[in-house]
Amino acid sequence: MDAERALPAAGPRPLEPGLRALLLASHDIAGRLEEAAGAGTSVALLGGDGPPLGHPEGRLPLADWNARAVPELPDEAFAPAPGDPSDAGALAAASGDGLRVLRAGRVLVQAGSGVGSLRGAQTPVTDPVSAALLDGGRSAVFPALPGWSARDCALRAVAEHRSWLAAQAPRLYGNDRSLGLLLTAARAALFLESLDGERPSLALTAAATAGALGGQEAVDGLADLTECHGGKRPADPQVLAALRTVVEALPPYAGTLS
User: The whole model's pTM is what?
Assistant: First the structure.
């Protein structure tokens, strides 16, 4: 191609205009979701006062869809970050130390090394727990929308944990992940059961889950998880077996794992 017909070289493209456009579009989507959300279900949040296991003070429990249904390890956590999510500098500053959340009105932007699949931008409809905790609340309103309602969220979390429980050998892997997943499986089951009662509730942390589950098996499981968290040592096989027996006997799992 001769010089007269060559296309001009692209110039620099500032990031902020694109970020502002994405934020405006996200606000519009969030508003439409809120209009469709209906009255929803108020769910009490248990265990939001202390720091999540393995995290420093100032971190809040992360109990979004991912953490409830396909957790990495309990407890997952996030921290509020200053700045506007349409500011590239604010996003960059929030990206280096765990999961941080920048908020602009209806939009919550998750940034940092902990961001994974199905995470990035949220709203109080799609992540009511994080939005409530950022506001200092002790309850979260799950919308009356398919897939995001409290019952649909609880059913999906139970289904994911049921699949994991059914796939594991009876002795489980002897590590902190197995202990943690037993407690998140219990959390999912207790969340679902609570929706049939007068006070729906969701445990935010391993400690809150053990408290809601009750019994010596839960106490021992939490203590062993605390001691072996982060791979410090193998989990106690007797503690694992005892806790698994209790979890598998919970009504949402009972009789479904064989």
Answer: 0.89
